[in-house]
Structures are given as C-alpha cells and as structure tokens.
C-alpha cells in the first residue's frame, strides 16, 4: 500500500439484495488529492461515497482511512463529513447555528464554537447572513453554508455528492473555482462525485470513471482524455472516433486492426497488444487528432474515404460530422484556420486520416 | 394568496358555511346572550345583567375546578405526547412500508368503538373486584382502589387521545427529510442525540399540534372524570352539569362554557405561535 494513501478500498463489494451496486473495487486516494468519481446515474459512484462516509456498509472487502479499517465504524464516529446533493441544511437552525452544529456535537465550548463558525462564514464570504434562516438564502449562498458546515471541523477529507447539480450554469462555473481554490488552500482531500465531465475534468487531480459498479479507468484528466483505456470510457467521454475490428498482426512495435472500413495500422509496443492477437478489439482516435484532406494522404497514416454530413461551431473550433461508406460516423475537431482550405459542404467527398501513433487499441468487453 | 370567490368555489363552500353559521356561530352568540340572562323562581328570563359572571368568578369552587381541569388536561397532553412519541418514532423509522400501513390501520381501530364504551370497559378492569385487582390478588397484592381516582381519569384521557396523538405525530415524522438525519449522523451526532437535535425540531409543528389536540380533548372531556374519576376532583365539565341541575342555572353554566372556550382559544393560539416560532415563509 502506498504510504501517501489516505483512503484505500481493498476488494470492496456492495450488494443490495440481488443487485450488485459496486463490484470488487480496489483503489487509493492520496493525501491532499482532489479525486472525482464520475459515471452516469446508477453506476455506483454515490454508493462508493456513502460507503466511505459510513452510510452504507460494504458487503465485502475493507475500506481503510489512514491505514485503519473503518468498515465497522458508524458514521458518527468517523471524520468523513459530506456535502449532500440536496445540501441537507437544517431548516430549523439559522446559518451560523448550522455551521456550529458539528462543533457542538464535539463538545466545543460556546464562545470557541461561535468564533470558529464566524471564521468559516467569513472565509466563504457569507458573514452577513449569519443570523438568517436557510430559506432566505439563494442557491449559491446555501452551497457556501453547506461547505462551511462540513469544513468547520477541519477534517482530513471532504466528501461531495454532486453538490453543484442544482445550480445554474454560470454559478456552477463560479463554484467550481471556489471549490478548487478551497481544496488547494486547505490541503483537504476532496472526493467529488459527479456525472458531469466538465466538473470532474476541470477540478480533479485524478478521475475515477465508473460504469455498472465497476471502475473503468483511473487517471489524471489528461491521461483519460488522451488514452481512454476502455471502449466505454471512449464512448462516455465522446471525444474519440471508435472503430471495431480484429487484431490480425502484432509484433515489431506494430499491430494491424482489420475493420469493415479497411485495415488500420497502429504503433504499439505494449505487451497487452500481443495478447489481443486474433481477437476483437476497439481502436480509438481523438477527434482532434483526426485530420481531413481532399486527396488520399501518403506516409504512415490510416485513411478512410468519407462524406460530410454536418458541422457544428463552438467558439474557436468546429466539429465536422462525417460518414463512411457503410454509415459509420466520424468526427473531426479543428480550429477554423486548419479547416479553411477545405471545401466544407454537406455531401462533399473527403478523406479522414490520422497518424498511426495517434490510435489506441483497447480490448473489446 | 387571495383570490375573489368564484361561483364554482362558492358551490362547494356554501353548504359548509351555512352549516357553520347555523350550528356554531348562532349557538355561540346565543350562549353569550344567555350568560347575561337571569333566573327567577327557577325560570330563565332574557335580561342584560352581569350577575352570573360576578357570581361564578367570585366562587372559590369555580376557580378550583378551573385549576384542576387545566392541570389535568396539561398533564394529559404532556404524558400522552411523551408516551406516544417512542411509538410513532418506531412506526415511522423502524418499520417497513407494509408494517407501517398495518400500524396506522391498528391506530385507527380504536375509533371504531365509542369512547364511552371503552371507558366503561376500563371500569371492569379498574373496579375493586375488577380484572386488575383479581390478577394482583393472585400474586398476593392488593386490592387497591383504582377506580374513582385521578389516575383512572388520566387513563381515560389517554384512552381518548393516544391513538389520535400517535397518528398526528406520525404524519409529521414520516415527512422528515431522511438526509437531514444522515447529515446529523455524518456530523458526529449520535442516534439518541439526533432524536433531540434533529428529529424533534424538524417535527415540532406536528408534535405541538398533537399535544394541543390532546389538551383540547381532555380539557372538555366529561366522560373520564365522571365515570373513571368519580366526579372528584370536580372538573369544569362536571361543574356545568351540576350547575344546570341546581335550580335551572343555565346562564351560570353558559359562563363556565364561555370561559372554557376562551381558554381553549388562548391555548390554541399560543401553541400554534410556539409551533411556528422562528419560521419565516
């Protein structure tokens, strides 16, 4: 086990009756890390967080906090404060009483309690609302109260369960930077559950992608973005073109994937590629690494003849939607300058191509 | 929000309105008028004389009965609230959905039989040769005087109010946001402490209204203090019947009744204010 790990999940399984919510999970969370757990609803991300908080007991395996197993520790004996999706602020207490709550439970004296709560209200820039009722606050202000309430005890770890999902888009972006700065300044480990790729990738040091109770990939946002490790991840991120075929040739640092669109070569020195020989596999190529041209390119590239079916502009980049002869969709994302020389009209015949080293092979599930 | 009454709305509310005027407002006005009538030679005659108010309010026995009734009703509402809470807590937090429906059903069953019948059956349990004393006799205890005591009156009040209070408490407990309880646990608030720090404050309105109902029902009850308490100590309801029987003193009885109504209004108002204290819309 890593010495810097604050939390470790060792073979953790969670079943609800027949339903397996989390299957054999092994991963670690480092001290001071901002970890995002991402996946669509029902993938087990919230269950994972709740097990860490002690709100659900694992069916199998061990969860350790600072090396000590915490499976049998009830939630009120752990220091794993959580920020709920609904925020779960106490409506019968005012703002400062909400923030003081955890200190009161720890038997901190009245004056000390007030002082520390005021400090956090000040830090979250909501001092002026100290005496207000929760119902009198806006969504963003409530968010700050919820954060202050959890952080006032200065825990080692903070759990967040989709805390921004109720906010409007502009406020969401503002709160993201508040959260990221807060995490950096305090050095508290954040475990952040979300279904939003933009939230996870903009804030987290590392991202865990889950699907159907299983971890699909763990890595930094860049790693995951550049080399999605499974077909699910590539699909989920939606930033890669995906081709499926048979691996017919490996070795010598190269492999060939035979697909209905033709044979694609790729550079591959990985041991794992050899194991894929003769099997069905998936090739992913980032849409930003996929190029377009009018004629067949030469050199060590893979090329597919395509027909343009649509385009979409987002700021400085454009996404061109294309279709191969057999109806397979390919996307190309480029800046406007890069596309300027191409005749971009719906129905235009073009060639999509990419360098062999930009393709990544993942086993078919 | 205020909207002008439409014909559609009136169609449904009018019958109730008429009913209320006929059988509540009108009798109440009449009761007020009656309290100023006088009685001469066992005959009432319309009058406008404050003598009934002066007589009743000048009597020690009236104030004694008032104090007794108020204290008994207050004690009953506190006692029933405390006894009912663990029951409604268990039903709302510890039972499965099916078991909870059954529990609610069981709580409704007592309303199937008349309260008077249930009080009479308590007499069979509590009398000197009753079921309780016979059973105590088997283990060499008793017999004790159980019937015609304040304790028996209290049992009657509980019989009257317990199921209702459990139901009222239940409906405020089941609507508590469960994440609030998890959040409290998560902030190091233990199980028992959560009951006092989160559950009771969250359900305060319902708990206070339930206690208020217990108070209202017990304060005006005639059956328990007479059939289980034996009419001693005298409550206001007993005093009313005594007053009407002695020399046709309906006007004086009206004074007692109006005092009771005034008291209940004041208590209800205070309770509702307390329940919603610190809440803003």
Task: Describe this protein with a few key phrases.
heterodimer; A: about 375 residues; alpha+beta; Rossmann fold; OB fold (Dihydrolipoamide Acetyltransferase, E2P); six-stranded mixed sheet; five-stranded antiparallel sheet; 10 helices; about 25% helix; B: about 280 residues; mainly alpha; MetI-like fold; two-stranded antiparallel sheet; 13 helices; 2 strands; about 75% helix; about 0% strand; transport (chain A); ATP-binding (chain A); AAA+_ATPase (chain A); nucleotide-binding (chain A); Mo/tungstate-bd_C_term_dom (chain A)
Please provide a written account of the structure.
- The complex is a heterodimer of chains A (365) and B (281).
- Chain A is an alpha+beta fold and 365 residues long.
- Chain A folds into two domains: 5-226, P-loop containing nucleotide triphosphate hydrolases (Rossmann fold), CATH 3.40.50.300; 231-363, OB fold (Dihydrolipoamide Acetyltransferase, E2P), CATH 2.40.50.100.
- Chain A has ten helices and 20 strands.
- Chain A has helices at residues 45-53, 95-105, 110-123, 139-151, 169-186, 197-203, 221-226, 231-237, 271-275, 336-339, and strands at 5-16, 19-30, 34-38, 60-65, 68-69, 82-83, 157-161, 189-194, 206-211, 214-219, 240-251, 254-259, 262-267, 280-286, 291-293, 301-314, 317-324, 329-335, 349-355, 359-363.
- In chain A, a hairpin with a 4-residue loop joins β17 and β18 (329-335).
- With 281 residues, chain B is mainly α.
- Chain B has a single domain, classed as MetI-like (MetI-like fold, Orthogonal Bundle).
- Helix content of chain B is 73%, strand content 2%.
- A two-stranded antiparallel sheet of chain B has the order 1-2.
- In chain B, β1 and β2 (43-45) form a beta hairpin.
- The two termini of chain B are 13 Å apart.
- The interface between A and B is medium-sized, with 28 and 23 residues.
- Chain B: It comes from Albidovulum sediminis.
């Amino acid at each position: 086990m890593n010495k810097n790990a604050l939390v470790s999940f060792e073979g953790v399984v969670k079943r609800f009756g027949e339903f397996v919510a989390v299957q054999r999970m092994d991963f670690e969370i480092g001290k001071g890390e901002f970890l995002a757990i991402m996946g669509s609803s029902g993938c087990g991300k919230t269950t994972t967080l709740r097990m860490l908080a002690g709100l659900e007991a694992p069916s199998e395996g061990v969860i350790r906090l600072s090396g000590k197993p915490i499976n049998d520790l009830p939630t009120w004996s752990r220091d794993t404060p959580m920020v709920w999706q609904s925020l779960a602020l106490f409506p019968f207490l005012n703002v400062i009483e909400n923030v003081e709550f955890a200190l009161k439970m720890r038997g901190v004296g009245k004056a000390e309690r007030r002082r520390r709560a005021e400090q956090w209200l000040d830090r979250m820039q909501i001092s002026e609302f100290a005496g207000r009722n929760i119902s009198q606050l806006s969504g963003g202000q409530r968010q700050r109260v919820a954060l202050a309430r959890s952080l006032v005890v200065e825990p080692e770890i903070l759990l967040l369960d989709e805390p921004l999902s109720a906010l409007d888009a502009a406020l969401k972006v503002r709160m993201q930077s508040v959260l990221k700065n807060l995490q950096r300044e305090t050095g508290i480990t954040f475990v952040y559950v979300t279904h939003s790729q933009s939230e996870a990738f903009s804030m987290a040091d590392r991202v865990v992608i889950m699907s159907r109770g299983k971890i699909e990939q763990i890595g930094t946002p860049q790693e995951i973005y550049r080399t999605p490790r499974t077909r699910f991840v590539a699909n989920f991120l939606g930033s890669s073109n995906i081709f499926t075929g048979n691996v017919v040739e490996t070795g010598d640092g190269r492999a060939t994937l035979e697909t209905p669109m033709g044979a694609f070569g790729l550079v591959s020195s990985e041991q794992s590629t050899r194991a894929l020989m003769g099997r069905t596999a998936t090739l992913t190529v980032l849409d930003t690494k996929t190029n377009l041209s009018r004629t067949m390119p030469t050199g060590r590239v893979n090329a597919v003849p395509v027909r343009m079916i649509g385009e979409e502009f987002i700021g400085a980049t454009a996404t061109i939607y294309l279709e191969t002869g057999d109806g397979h969709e390919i996307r190309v994302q480029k800046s406007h300058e890069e596309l300027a020389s191409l005749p971009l009209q719906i129905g235009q015949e073009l060639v999509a191509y990419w360098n062999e080293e930009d393709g990544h092979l993942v086993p078919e599930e | 929000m205020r909207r002008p009454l439409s014909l559609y709305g009136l169609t449904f509310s009018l019958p109730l309105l008429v009913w209320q005027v006929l059988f509540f407002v009108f009798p109440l006005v009449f009761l007020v008028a009656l309290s100023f009538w006088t009685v001469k030679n066992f005959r009432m005659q319309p009058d406008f004389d404050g003598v009934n108010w002066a007589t009743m309010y000048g009597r020690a026995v009236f104030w004694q009965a008032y104090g007794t009734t108020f204290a008994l009703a207050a004690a009953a509402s506190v006692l029933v609230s405390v006894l009912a809470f663990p029951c409604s807590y268990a039903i709302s937090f510890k039972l499965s959905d099916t078991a909870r429906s059954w529990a609610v059903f069981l709580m409704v069953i007592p309303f199937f039989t008349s309260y008077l019948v249930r009080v009479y059956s308590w007499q069979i349990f509590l009398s000197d040769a009753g079921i309780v004393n016979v059973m105590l006799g088997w283990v060499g205890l008793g017999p004790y005087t159980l019937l015609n005591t304040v304790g028996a009156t209290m049992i009657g009040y509980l019989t009257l109010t317990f199921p209702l209070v459990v139901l009222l408490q239940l409906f405020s407990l089941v609507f508590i946001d469960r994440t609030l309880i998890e959040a409290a646990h998560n902030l190091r608030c233990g199980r028992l402490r959560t009951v006092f720090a989160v559950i009771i404050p969250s359900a305060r309105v319902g708990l206070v209204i339930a206690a208020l109902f217990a108070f209202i029902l017990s304060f005006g009850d005639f059956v328990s203090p007479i059939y289980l308490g034996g009419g001693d100590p005298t409550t206001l309801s007993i005093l009313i019947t005594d007053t009407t029987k002695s020399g046709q003193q309906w006007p004086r009885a009206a004074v007692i009744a109006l005092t009771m109504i005034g008291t209940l209004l004041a208590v209800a108002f205070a309770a509702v204010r307390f329940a919603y204290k610190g809440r803003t819309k």
